[in-house]
Amino acid sequence: MTLRLHDTATRALRPLEPLQPGRVGVYTCGPTVQARPHVGHLRSAIALDVLHRWLLASGYEVVFVRNVTDVDDKIIHDAAHGDEPWWALATRMERAFTQAYDAVQCLPPTVTPRVTGSIPSITALIERIIDRGHAYASGGDVYLAVRTAEGYGALSGQDPDALRASEKAVAHGHTGEKRDPLDFALWKAAKEGEPSWPSPWGPGRPGWHIECSAMAVDVLGEEFDLHAGGLDLVFPHHENEVAQSRCAGHPFARHWLHHGLVTVAGGGGEKMSKSLGNSTTVEDVLRQVRPQVLRYALGAGHYRSQLEWSPATLGDAEAAYGRIETFVRNATEATRGVQPGESQASWADFAAALDDDLGVPQALAAVHTGVRAGNALLDAGDLPRLAATLADVRRMLAVLALDPVEQWPAGASDLTAVVDALVAIAVEARADARARKDWERADAVRDRLKASGIVLEDTPTGVRWRLS
RNA sequence: GGCCGGGUGGCCGAGUGGCUUAGGCAAGGGCCUGCAAAGCCCUGUACGCGGGUUCGAUUCCCGCCCCGGCCUCCA
Protein backbone atom coordinates (compact mmCIF):
# COMPACT_ATOMS: atom_id res chain seq x y z
CA MET A 1 0.00 0.00 0.00
CA THR A 2 1.22 3.43 -0.90
CA LEU A 3 -0.04 6.78 0.17
CA ARG A 4 -1.50 8.83 -2.64
CA LEU A 5 -2.10 12.53 -2.07
CA HIS A 6 -3.66 15.25 -4.13
CA ASP A 7 -0.98 17.48 -5.60
CA THR A 8 -1.96 21.08 -6.25
CA ALA A 9 0.69 21.52 -8.92
CA THR A 10 -0.72 18.75 -11.10
CA ARG A 11 -4.28 18.82 -9.73
CA ALA A 12 -4.23 15.07 -9.52
CA LEU A 13 -3.66 12.27 -7.04
CA ARG A 14 -0.01 11.27 -7.00
CA PRO A 15 1.83 8.71 -4.92
CA LEU A 16 4.06 10.28 -2.33
CA GLU A 17 7.54 9.25 -3.40
CA PRO A 18 10.05 10.39 -0.80
CA LEU A 19 13.50 11.44 -1.96
CA GLN A 20 14.99 9.11 0.62
CA PRO A 21 13.13 5.86 1.10
CA GLY A 22 11.56 5.64 4.52
CA ARG A 23 11.96 9.30 5.34
CA VAL A 24 9.53 12.13 4.59
CA GLY A 25 10.22 15.84 4.95
CA VAL A 26 7.17 18.06 5.30
CA TYR A 27 7.11 21.83 5.43
CA THR A 28 3.94 23.57 6.45
CA CYS A 29 3.23 27.26 6.66
CA GLY A 30 2.44 27.99 10.25
CA PRO A 31 0.66 30.95 11.71
CA THR A 32 1.47 34.60 11.80
CA VAL A 33 1.36 35.11 15.54
CA GLN A 34 -0.61 38.29 15.62
CA ALA A 35 -3.84 37.29 17.37
CA ARG A 36 -5.36 34.35 19.19
CA PRO A 37 -5.99 31.24 17.11
CA HIS A 38 -9.47 30.61 15.75
CA VAL A 39 -10.98 27.30 14.77
CA GLY A 40 -9.82 27.74 11.17
CA HIS A 41 -6.20 27.67 12.30
CA LEU A 42 -6.89 24.54 14.27
CA ARG A 43 -8.60 22.83 11.36
CA SER A 44 -5.39 23.34 9.45
CA ALA A 45 -3.25 21.92 12.22
CA ILE A 46 -5.51 18.91 12.71
CA ALA A 47 -5.66 18.07 8.99
CA LEU A 48 -1.87 18.10 8.83
CA ASP A 49 -1.59 16.25 12.12
CA VAL A 50 -3.55 13.38 10.60
CA LEU A 51 -1.05 13.40 7.73
CA HIS A 52 1.82 13.46 10.22
CA ARG A 53 0.40 10.59 12.25
CA TRP A 54 -0.48 8.52 9.22
CA LEU A 55 3.06 8.86 7.88
CA LEU A 56 4.38 7.71 11.25
CA ALA A 57 1.89 4.86 11.40
CA SER A 58 3.00 3.85 7.91
CA GLY A 59 6.52 3.46 9.18
CA TYR A 60 8.12 6.62 7.87
CA GLU A 61 10.59 8.70 9.72
CA VAL A 62 9.05 12.17 9.50
CA VAL A 63 10.69 15.57 9.71
CA PHE A 64 7.74 17.86 10.19
CA VAL A 65 8.51 21.55 9.94
CA ARG A 66 6.01 24.21 10.88
CA ASN A 67 7.31 27.73 10.95
CA VAL A 68 6.15 30.69 12.97
CA THR A 69 5.97 34.09 11.33
CA ASP A 70 6.88 36.23 14.29
CA VAL A 71 7.47 39.55 12.58
CA ASP A 72 5.27 41.13 9.96
CA ASP A 73 3.27 44.29 9.20
CA LYS A 74 0.30 43.34 11.32
CA ILE A 75 2.25 42.32 14.37
CA ILE A 76 4.19 45.58 14.22
CA HIS A 77 0.97 47.53 13.70
CA ASP A 78 -0.97 45.85 16.51
CA ALA A 79 1.87 46.08 18.96
CA ALA A 80 2.32 49.76 18.17
CA HIS A 81 -1.34 50.35 18.96
CA GLY A 82 -1.18 48.29 22.11
CA ASP A 83 1.12 48.72 25.00
CA GLU A 84 3.81 46.16 24.39
CA PRO A 85 6.80 45.59 22.13
CA TRP A 86 6.13 43.64 18.92
CA TRP A 87 8.24 40.73 20.14
CA ALA A 88 6.20 40.45 23.33
CA LEU A 89 2.97 40.29 21.35
CA ALA A 90 4.43 37.67 19.03
CA THR A 91 5.66 35.55 21.91
CA ARG A 92 2.36 35.80 23.76
CA MET A 93 0.39 34.78 20.69
CA GLU A 94 2.76 31.99 19.77
CA ARG A 95 2.13 30.56 23.21
CA ALA A 96 -1.64 30.76 22.61
CA PHE A 97 -1.20 28.82 19.36
CA THR A 98 0.93 26.19 21.03
CA GLN A 99 -1.65 25.75 23.77
CA ALA A 100 -4.41 25.36 21.17
CA TYR A 101 -2.41 22.78 19.21
CA ASP A 102 -1.62 20.88 22.39
CA ALA A 103 -5.21 21.00 23.57
CA VAL A 104 -6.40 19.05 20.54
CA GLN A 105 -3.47 16.64 20.63
CA CYS A 106 -1.58 17.76 17.55
CA LEU A 107 1.89 16.25 17.61
CA PRO A 108 4.53 18.90 18.02
CA PRO A 109 6.52 19.63 14.87
CA THR A 110 10.02 18.24 14.67
CA VAL A 111 11.23 21.81 14.48
CA THR A 112 9.62 25.26 14.64
CA PRO A 113 11.76 27.80 12.81
CA ARG A 114 11.00 31.48 13.36
CA VAL A 115 11.58 34.32 10.95
CA THR A 116 13.49 36.35 13.52
CA GLY A 117 15.86 33.43 13.98
CA SER A 118 16.42 32.90 10.28
CA ILE A 119 17.61 36.31 9.07
CA PRO A 120 21.10 35.17 7.99
CA SER A 121 19.64 32.37 5.87
CA ILE A 122 17.14 34.77 4.37
CA THR A 123 19.70 37.41 3.41
CA ALA A 124 22.01 34.73 2.02
CA LEU A 125 19.17 33.37 -0.10
CA ILE A 126 18.32 36.84 -1.41
CA GLU A 127 21.97 37.45 -2.33
CA ARG A 128 22.00 34.18 -4.20
CA ILE A 129 18.89 35.17 -6.16
CA ILE A 130 20.40 38.56 -7.01
CA ASP A 131 23.65 36.90 -8.12
CA ARG A 132 21.72 34.68 -10.46
CA GLY A 133 20.08 37.72 -12.03
CA HIS A 134 16.54 37.24 -10.81
CA ALA A 135 16.27 40.00 -8.22
CA TYR A 136 17.34 43.62 -7.87
CA ALA A 137 17.71 46.16 -5.10
CA SER A 138 15.90 49.47 -5.20
CA GLY A 139 15.70 52.09 -2.48
CA GLY A 140 16.63 49.63 0.24
CA ASP A 141 14.07 47.09 -0.98
CA VAL A 142 14.89 43.98 -2.96
CA TYR A 143 12.43 42.68 -5.52
CA LEU A 144 12.10 39.43 -7.35
CA ALA A 145 11.93 40.01 -11.09
CA VAL A 146 8.88 37.89 -11.69
CA ARG A 147 9.19 37.92 -15.48
CA THR A 148 12.53 36.17 -15.20
CA ALA A 149 11.02 33.35 -13.16
CA GLU A 150 10.34 30.51 -15.54
CA GLY A 151 6.88 29.03 -15.26
CA TYR A 152 5.56 31.69 -12.93
CA GLY A 153 1.88 30.99 -12.20
CA ALA A 154 2.01 27.27 -12.90
CA LEU A 155 1.33 26.15 -9.35
CA SER A 156 -1.75 28.30 -8.89
CA GLY A 157 -2.93 28.32 -12.48
CA GLN A 158 -2.43 32.05 -12.80
CA ASP A 159 -1.47 33.70 -16.04
CA PRO A 160 1.09 36.48 -15.46
CA ASP A 161 -0.47 38.61 -18.18
CA ALA A 162 -3.89 38.24 -16.62
CA LEU A 163 -2.43 39.12 -13.24
CA ARG A 164 -0.82 42.14 -14.76
CA ALA A 165 -4.24 43.26 -15.96
CA SER A 166 -5.63 42.92 -12.46
CA GLU A 167 -4.71 45.97 -10.44
CA LYS A 168 -5.19 43.96 -7.29
CA ALA A 169 -2.13 41.87 -8.05
CA VAL A 170 0.17 44.76 -7.33
CA ALA A 171 1.74 44.37 -3.91
CA HIS A 172 1.48 47.31 -1.57
CA GLY A 173 3.61 49.01 1.02
CA HIS A 174 6.91 49.13 -0.86
CA THR A 175 9.30 52.03 -0.87
CA GLY A 176 11.55 51.24 -3.82
CA GLU A 177 10.81 51.33 -7.54
CA LYS A 178 9.61 48.13 -9.16
CA ARG A 179 10.55 47.27 -12.70
CA ASP A 180 7.29 45.40 -13.15
CA PRO A 181 4.09 45.64 -11.11
CA LEU A 182 4.15 41.87 -10.57
CA ASP A 183 7.53 41.98 -8.84
CA PHE A 184 7.30 41.32 -5.13
CA ALA A 185 9.52 42.26 -2.22
CA LEU A 186 12.11 39.84 -0.89
CA TRP A 187 13.47 42.44 1.49
CA LYS A 188 11.70 45.53 2.79
CA ALA A 189 13.62 48.63 3.80
CA ALA A 190 12.95 49.63 7.41
CA LYS A 191 10.58 52.49 7.96
CA GLU A 192 10.82 54.82 10.93
CA GLY A 193 10.33 52.98 14.20
CA GLU A 194 10.10 49.52 12.67
CA PRO A 195 12.18 46.56 13.74
CA SER A 196 15.04 45.91 11.35
CA TRP A 197 18.10 43.81 10.74
CA PRO A 198 21.27 44.85 8.94
CA SER A 199 21.66 43.65 5.37
CA PRO A 200 23.74 44.35 2.25
CA TRP A 201 20.85 46.61 1.13
CA GLY A 202 20.55 48.51 4.36
CA PRO A 203 18.47 47.90 7.46
CA GLY A 204 15.21 46.13 6.83
CA ARG A 205 13.23 42.96 7.27
CA PRO A 206 12.21 40.02 5.11
CA GLY A 207 9.28 40.12 2.73
CA TRP A 208 6.45 37.75 3.44
CA HIS A 209 7.35 34.90 1.11
CA ILE A 210 11.11 34.60 1.32
CA GLU A 211 11.10 33.39 4.92
CA CYS A 212 9.43 30.11 4.04
CA SER A 213 11.78 29.40 1.18
CA ALA A 214 14.75 30.01 3.44
CA MET A 215 13.49 28.05 6.43
CA ALA A 216 12.31 25.09 4.38
CA VAL A 217 15.67 24.77 2.65
CA ASP A 218 17.53 25.27 5.93
CA VAL A 219 15.89 22.25 7.50
CA LEU A 220 14.85 20.02 4.64
CA GLY A 221 17.34 20.85 1.90
CA GLU A 222 17.07 22.39 -1.55
CA GLU A 223 14.61 19.75 -2.64
CA PHE A 224 12.10 18.15 -0.29
CA ASP A 225 9.07 15.94 -0.31
CA LEU A 226 5.98 17.86 0.63
CA HIS A 227 4.86 21.41 1.22
CA ALA A 228 1.47 21.97 2.82
CA GLY A 229 -0.80 24.82 3.78
CA GLY A 230 -4.25 26.34 3.47
CA LEU A 231 -5.96 26.83 0.15
CA ASP A 232 -5.75 30.57 0.68
CA LEU A 233 -1.97 30.40 0.48
CA VAL A 234 -1.72 28.93 -3.01
CA PHE A 235 -1.51 32.37 -4.51
CA PRO A 236 0.46 34.46 -4.05
CA HIS A 237 2.37 32.94 -1.13
CA HIS A 238 3.22 29.49 -2.45
CA GLU A 239 3.52 30.63 -6.04
CA ASN A 240 6.09 33.18 -4.93
CA GLU A 241 7.91 30.67 -2.79
CA VAL A 242 8.33 28.45 -5.82
CA ALA A 243 9.42 31.35 -8.00
CA GLN A 244 12.11 32.66 -5.67
CA SER A 245 13.37 29.19 -4.78
CA ARG A 246 13.72 28.14 -8.41
CA CYS A 247 15.40 31.45 -9.12
CA ALA A 248 17.89 30.48 -6.42
CA GLY A 249 18.45 27.20 -8.22
CA HIS A 250 16.54 25.07 -5.73
CA PRO A 251 14.17 22.41 -7.02
CA PHE A 252 12.09 23.00 -3.86
CA ALA A 253 8.93 21.06 -2.98
CA ARG A 254 8.05 17.95 -4.98
CA HIS A 255 4.46 17.75 -3.83
CA TRP A 256 1.97 20.45 -2.80
CA LEU A 257 -0.91 19.76 -0.46
CA HIS A 258 -3.60 22.29 0.37
CA HIS A 259 -6.48 21.91 2.76
CA GLY A 260 -9.91 23.54 2.59
CA LEU A 261 -10.99 26.46 4.71
CA VAL A 262 -13.51 26.88 7.45
CA THR A 263 -16.41 29.06 6.41
CA VAL A 264 -19.04 30.61 8.61
CA ALA A 265 -22.69 29.69 8.21
CA GLY A 266 -25.12 32.53 8.22
CA GLY A 267 -22.87 35.51 7.70
CA GLY A 268 -22.68 35.00 3.94
CA GLY A 269 -20.86 31.69 4.27
CA GLU A 270 -17.50 33.27 3.80
CA LYS A 271 -14.13 32.18 5.05
CA MET A 272 -13.48 32.49 8.74
CA SER A 273 -10.76 35.01 9.28
CA LYS A 274 -9.60 37.54 11.77
CA SER A 275 -9.76 40.34 9.27
CA LEU A 276 -13.37 39.59 8.34
CA GLY A 277 -14.31 39.71 12.00
CA ASN A 278 -16.21 36.43 11.88
CA SER A 279 -13.85 34.16 13.71
CA THR A 280 -14.56 31.95 16.69
CA THR A 281 -11.53 31.59 18.91
CA VAL A 282 -10.35 28.24 20.11
CA GLU A 283 -10.56 29.55 23.66
CA ASP A 284 -14.26 30.28 23.28
CA VAL A 285 -15.04 26.87 21.86
CA LEU A 286 -13.10 25.05 24.56
CA ARG A 287 -15.25 26.74 27.15
CA GLN A 288 -18.23 24.99 25.55
CA VAL A 289 -16.96 21.55 24.63
CA ARG A 290 -14.19 19.15 25.48
CA PRO A 291 -11.14 19.36 23.22
CA GLN A 292 -11.70 15.88 21.81
CA VAL A 293 -15.10 17.02 20.55
CA LEU A 294 -13.52 20.02 18.87
CA ARG A 295 -10.93 17.75 17.31
CA TYR A 296 -13.69 15.53 15.97
CA ALA A 297 -15.70 18.50 14.68
CA LEU A 298 -12.72 19.89 12.77
CA GLY A 299 -11.15 16.64 11.72
CA ALA A 300 -14.01 14.38 10.68
CA GLY A 301 -14.49 15.80 7.20
CA HIS A 302 -12.11 15.41 4.29
CA TYR A 303 -9.15 17.78 4.52
CA ARG A 304 -9.78 19.27 1.10
CA SER A 305 -13.43 20.01 1.73
CA GLN A 306 -14.71 23.31 2.88
CA LEU A 307 -15.96 23.05 6.43
CA GLU A 308 -18.97 25.13 7.33
CA TRP A 309 -18.95 26.23 10.95
CA SER A 310 -22.44 26.52 12.35
CA PRO A 311 -24.18 26.42 15.72
CA ALA A 312 -24.95 22.74 15.07
CA THR A 313 -21.34 21.74 14.36
CA LEU A 314 -20.28 21.04 17.92
CA GLY A 315 -23.50 19.26 18.85
CA ASP A 316 -23.18 16.94 15.86
CA ALA A 317 -19.60 16.16 16.81
CA GLU A 318 -20.53 15.53 20.42
CA ALA A 319 -23.15 12.97 19.34
CA ALA A 320 -20.94 11.18 16.82
CA TYR A 321 -17.89 11.06 19.05
CA GLY A 322 -20.04 10.14 22.03
CA ARG A 323 -21.06 6.92 20.33
CA ILE A 324 -17.42 5.98 19.88
CA GLU A 325 -16.56 6.90 23.45
CA THR A 326 -19.47 4.92 24.83
CA PHE A 327 -18.33 1.82 23.01
CA VAL A 328 -14.72 2.17 24.08
CA ARG A 329 -15.73 2.74 27.68
CA ASN A 330 -18.21 -0.14 27.81
CA ALA A 331 -15.92 -2.55 26.00
CA THR A 332 -12.94 -1.59 28.14
CA GLU A 333 -14.89 -2.31 31.31
CA ALA A 334 -16.24 -5.58 29.99
CA THR A 335 -12.92 -6.92 28.71
CA ARG A 336 -10.68 -5.90 31.58
CA GLY A 337 -8.14 -8.68 31.76
CA VAL A 338 -9.46 -10.56 28.74
CA GLN A 339 -6.94 -11.57 26.07
CA PRO A 340 -7.81 -10.46 22.55
CA GLY A 341 -9.10 -13.28 20.38
CA GLU A 342 -9.62 -13.48 16.66
CA SER A 343 -8.70 -10.23 14.92
CA GLN A 344 -11.16 -8.12 12.96
CA ALA A 345 -10.96 -6.76 9.45
CA SER A 346 -11.69 -3.05 9.99
CA TRP A 347 -8.06 -1.99 9.99
CA ALA A 348 -7.53 -2.89 6.34
CA ASP A 349 -10.45 -0.69 5.29
CA PHE A 350 -9.20 2.07 7.53
CA ALA A 351 -5.69 1.96 6.10
CA ALA A 352 -6.95 1.85 2.52
CA ALA A 353 -9.10 4.91 3.18
CA LEU A 354 -6.22 6.94 4.57
CA ASP A 355 -3.86 5.82 1.83
CA ASP A 356 -6.34 7.27 -0.65
CA ASP A 357 -5.67 10.97 -0.12
CA LEU A 358 -6.28 10.78 3.62
CA GLY A 359 -9.91 9.69 3.32
CA VAL A 360 -10.81 10.37 6.92
CA PRO A 361 -14.60 10.15 6.39
CA GLN A 362 -14.25 6.64 5.02
CA ALA A 363 -11.73 5.77 7.67
CA LEU A 364 -14.28 6.84 10.26
CA ALA A 365 -16.84 4.64 8.56
CA ALA A 366 -14.45 1.74 9.22
CA VAL A 367 -14.21 2.85 12.85
CA HIS A 368 -17.98 2.89 13.14
CA THR A 369 -18.23 -0.52 11.52
CA GLY A 370 -15.87 -1.75 14.20
CA VAL A 371 -17.91 -0.05 16.90
CA ARG A 372 -21.12 -1.65 15.68
CA ALA A 373 -19.56 -5.09 15.48
CA GLY A 374 -18.05 -4.56 18.91
CA ASN A 375 -21.37 -3.55 20.45
CA ALA A 376 -22.93 -6.70 19.03
CA LEU A 377 -20.14 -8.79 20.58
CA LEU A 378 -20.68 -6.96 23.84
CA ASP A 379 -24.37 -7.88 23.74
CA ALA A 380 -23.46 -11.46 22.91
CA GLY A 381 -20.92 -11.60 25.71
CA ASP A 382 -18.15 -12.76 23.36
CA LEU A 383 -15.35 -11.18 25.35
CA PRO A 384 -12.26 -12.51 23.54
CA ARG A 385 -13.48 -11.30 20.18
CA LEU A 386 -14.72 -8.09 21.76
CA ALA A 387 -11.22 -7.49 23.11
CA ALA A 388 -9.82 -7.94 19.61
CA THR A 389 -12.35 -5.53 18.15
CA LEU A 390 -11.66 -3.01 20.86
CA ALA A 391 -7.94 -3.19 20.16
CA ASP A 392 -8.66 -2.69 16.47
CA VAL A 393 -10.91 0.30 17.05
CA ARG A 394 -8.46 1.93 19.42
CA ARG A 395 -5.61 1.40 16.97
CA MET A 396 -7.63 3.26 14.35
CA LEU A 397 -8.64 6.01 16.76
CA ALA A 398 -5.02 6.51 17.78
CA VAL A 399 -4.10 7.47 14.22
CA LEU A 400 -6.79 10.14 14.31
CA ALA A 401 -5.81 11.11 17.88
CA LEU A 402 -9.33 10.29 19.00
CA ASP A 403 -8.69 7.36 21.34
CA PRO A 404 -10.69 8.18 24.50
CA VAL A 405 -8.34 6.11 26.64
CA GLU A 406 -4.82 6.96 25.48
CA GLN A 407 -5.20 10.45 24.13
CA TRP A 408 -7.95 11.91 26.25
CA PRO A 409 -7.58 10.40 29.70
CA ALA A 410 -9.42 11.97 32.57
CA GLY A 411 -7.42 14.69 34.27
CA ALA A 412 -5.46 14.52 37.50
CA SER A 413 -8.46 15.83 39.41
CA ASP A 414 -10.43 12.77 38.35
CA LEU A 415 -12.90 11.79 41.03
CA THR A 416 -14.10 8.66 39.29
CA ALA A 417 -13.10 6.36 42.14
CA VAL A 418 -14.79 8.57 44.70
CA VAL A 419 -18.02 8.88 42.71
CA ASP A 420 -17.86 5.18 42.03
CA ALA A 421 -17.96 4.46 45.74
CA LEU A 422 -20.75 6.94 46.38
CA VAL A 423 -22.85 5.74 43.48
CA ALA A 424 -22.41 2.19 44.74
CA ILE A 425 -24.31 3.11 47.91
CA ALA A 426 -27.23 4.45 45.89
CA VAL A 427 -27.12 1.49 43.56
CA GLU A 428 -27.36 -0.89 46.53
CA ALA A 429 -30.43 0.94 47.83
CA ARG A 430 -31.97 0.74 44.39
CA ALA A 431 -31.15 -2.94 44.12
CA ASP A 432 -32.99 -3.59 47.41
CA ALA A 433 -36.04 -1.74 46.14
CA ARG A 434 -35.91 -3.61 42.84
CA ALA A 435 -35.66 -6.92 44.67
CA ARG A 436 -38.91 -5.97 46.42
CA LYS A 437 -40.33 -4.90 43.05
CA ASP A 438 -40.76 -1.46 44.57
CA TRP A 439 -40.33 0.22 41.18
CA GLU A 440 -41.38 3.63 42.45
CA ARG A 441 -38.61 3.70 45.02
CA ALA A 442 -36.06 2.22 42.61
CA ASP A 443 -36.87 4.84 39.98
CA ALA A 444 -36.69 7.61 42.59
CA VAL A 445 -33.08 6.67 43.30
CA ARG A 446 -32.28 6.70 39.60
CA ASP A 447 -34.04 10.01 39.09
CA ARG A 448 -32.16 11.67 41.92
CA LEU A 449 -28.84 10.55 40.48
CA LYS A 450 -29.91 11.76 37.05
CA ALA A 451 -30.72 15.16 38.50
CA SER A 452 -27.07 15.29 39.62
CA GLY A 453 -25.90 14.37 36.15
CA ILE A 454 -25.31 10.67 36.72
CA VAL A 455 -27.00 8.21 34.39
CA LEU A 456 -27.45 4.59 35.49
CA GLU A 457 -27.44 1.78 32.95
CA ASP A 458 -28.51 -1.76 33.85
CA THR A 459 -26.47 -4.40 32.07
CA PRO A 460 -26.38 -8.20 32.28
CA THR A 461 -23.21 -7.91 34.33
CA GLY A 462 -24.39 -5.22 36.70
CA VAL A 463 -25.14 -1.53 36.91
CA ARG A 464 -22.78 1.02 35.40
CA TRP A 465 -22.92 4.77 35.64
CA ARG A 466 -21.77 7.64 33.50
CA LEU A 467 -21.97 11.39 33.49
CA SER A 468 -24.76 12.69 31.27
C1' G B 1 -13.47 40.37 -15.27
C1' G B 2 -9.63 36.03 -14.85
C1' C B 3 -8.23 31.28 -12.43
C1' C B 4 -9.83 27.26 -9.14
C1' G B 5 -13.37 24.14 -6.15
C1' G B 6 -18.34 22.77 -4.98
C1' G B 7 -24.03 22.02 -5.15
C1' U B 8 -25.92 14.36 -2.61
C1' G B 9 -31.94 11.77 1.13
C1' G B 10 -34.73 15.93 7.40
C1' C B 11 -29.38 17.41 8.85
C1' C B 12 -23.91 16.47 8.60
C1' G B 13 -20.97 13.98 5.20
C1' A B 14 -18.39 10.02 1.58
C1' G B 15 -18.52 7.94 -3.18
C1' U B 16 -19.42 5.75 -7.89
C1' G B 17 -20.99 4.87 -15.39
C1' G B 18 -25.00 -0.22 -13.98
C1' C B 19 -23.73 -4.46 -8.78
C1' U B 20 -25.79 -5.26 -1.26
C1' U B 21 -25.78 2.29 -4.37
C1' A B 22 -20.61 4.60 2.84
C1' G B 23 -20.85 6.37 7.80
C1' G B 24 -22.95 9.49 11.70
C1' C B 25 -27.14 12.35 13.67
C1' A B 26 -32.38 12.84 13.67
C1' A B 27 -37.24 9.95 12.53
C1' G B 28 -40.43 5.42 12.42
C1' G B 29 -40.91 0.00 13.56
C1' G B 30 -38.98 -4.30 16.16
C1' C B 31 -35.74 -6.92 19.95
C1' C B 32 -33.77 -6.42 24.95
C1' U B 33 -35.53 -4.04 29.85
C1' G B 34 -40.17 -4.02 35.60
C1' C B 35 -39.67 0.92 33.23
C1' A B 36 -35.48 3.28 31.41
C1' A B 37 -30.53 3.93 29.53
C1' A B 38 -27.08 1.74 26.37
C1' G B 39 -27.02 -1.60 22.40
C1' C B 40 -28.60 -4.72 18.19
C1' C B 41 -31.92 -5.48 13.75
C1' C B 42 -35.16 -3.28 10.00
C1' U B 43 -37.18 1.10 7.16
C1' G B 44 -36.61 5.86 4.13
C1' U B 45 -34.51 5.02 -2.27
C1' A B 46 -30.99 11.20 -2.48
C1' C B 47 -27.72 13.16 -5.97
C1' G B 48 -29.00 22.07 -8.32
C1' C B 49 -31.60 22.97 -13.46
C1' G B 50 -31.70 22.00 -18.90
C1' G B 51 -29.56 19.49 -22.85
C1' G B 52 -26.01 15.78 -24.91
C1' U B 53 -22.88 11.12 -25.15
C1' U B 54 -24.29 6.01 -23.73
C1' C B 55 -27.86 -0.02 -23.85
C1' G B 56 -27.67 2.73 -19.13
C1' A B 57 -25.47 8.97 -15.69
C1' U B 58 -25.93 11.23 -9.53
C1' U B 59 -21.11 9.79 -11.69
C1' C B 60 -18.57 11.85 -18.54
C1' C B 61 -19.48 16.44 -21.94
C1' C B 62 -21.94 21.36 -22.89
C1' G B 63 -24.93 25.39 -21.18
C1' C B 64 -27.41 27.77 -17.12
C1' C B 65 -28.41 28.98 -11.92
C1' C B 66 -26.46 29.20 -7.02
C1' C B 67 -22.39 28.92 -3.29
C1' G B 68 -17.26 29.21 -1.74
C1' G B 69 -11.70 30.19 -2.47
C1' C B 70 -7.76 33.09 -4.89
C1' C B 71 -6.39 37.50 -7.82
C1' U B 72 -4.84 42.50 -1.00
C1' C B 73 -2.94 40.24 4.90
C1' C B 74 -4.65 35.21 5.81
C1' A B 75 -4.61 28.17 7.95
List the helices and strands and how they pair.
Blueprint: E1 4-7, E2 12-15, E3 23-28, H1 39-57, E4 61-66, H2 73-81, H3 86-103, H4 119-131, E5 135-138, E6 141-144, H5 160-165, E7 184-189, E8 204-206, H6 210-220, E9 223-224, E10 226-230, H7 234-247, E11 252-253, E12 256-259, E13 262-264, H8 282-288, H9 291-299, E14 307-309, H10 313-335, H11 346-355, H12 360-380, H13 383-399, H14 416-435, H15 439-451, E15 454-459, E16 462-467
Parallel strand pairs: 3-4, 3-10, 9-11, 10-12, 13-14
Antiparallel strand pairs: 1-2, 5-6, 6-7, 7-8, 15-16
The protein binds one RNA strand of 75 nucleotides through helix 1, helix 5, helix 7, helix 10 and helix 12.
Summary, kept brief:
The protein is an alpha/beta fold. Helices cover 45% and strands 15% of the residues.
Strand order of the largest sheet: 4-3-10-12
Name the beta content range.
5-15%
Say how many strands there are.
16
**First and last CA, distance:** 42 Å
The structural class is: alpha/beta
The helix content is 40-55%
Number of helices: 15
Segments where pLDDT lies below 50 for 5+ residues?
none
Major sheet details = 4 strands, parallel
- Mean pLDDT, rounded to whole units? 92
Please tell me what the overall shape is.
elongated
| Rg on CA atoms, Å | 27 Å
Protein architecture, described:
The longest helix has 23 residues, at 313-335. The protein has a 4-stranded parallel beta sheet, with helices on both faces. A 4-stranded antiparallel beta sheet has the order 5-6-7-8, with helices on one face. The chain is built from 15 helices and 16 strands. Strand 3 (23-28), helix 1 (39-57) and strand 4 form a beta-alpha-beta unit. Helix 12 (360-380) packs antiparallel against helix 13. It is α/β, with parallel strands linked by helices and 468 residues long. Helix content is 45%, strand content 15%. It has helices spanning 39-57, 73-81, 86-103, 119-131, 160-165, 210-220, 234-247, 282-288, 291-299, 313-335, 346-355, 360-380, 383-399, 416-435, 439-451, and strands at 4-7, 12-15, 23-28, 61-66, 135-138, 141-144, 184-189, 204-206, 223-224, 226-230, 252-253, 256-259, 262-264, 307-309, 454-459, 462-467. The chain binds one RNA strand of 75 nucleotides through helix 1, helix 5, helix 7, helix 10 and helix 12.
